[in-house]
Amino acid sequence: MGAGHGHGHGPTSAGGRHRWRLTLTFAMVAAFFVVELVVGLVAGSLALISDAGHMAADVVALGAALVATKVAARPDSTGRRTYGSYRAEVFASGFTVLIMLAVSVYVGVEAIGRFGTTEEISTGPMLVVGLLGLAVNGVSLLLLRSGAKESLNVKGAYYEVVADAAGSVGVIVAGFLVLVSGSPVWDTIVALAIGVFVAVRAVGLGRQVLAVLGQHVPAGMEVEAVTADLAAVPGVRDVHDLHVWTLTSGMHVATAHLVVEDHADGQRVLQAAQDVLRVTHRVEHATLQVEDRPTNACHEVTW
Question: What is the pTM of this model?
Answer without folding.
Answer: 0.71
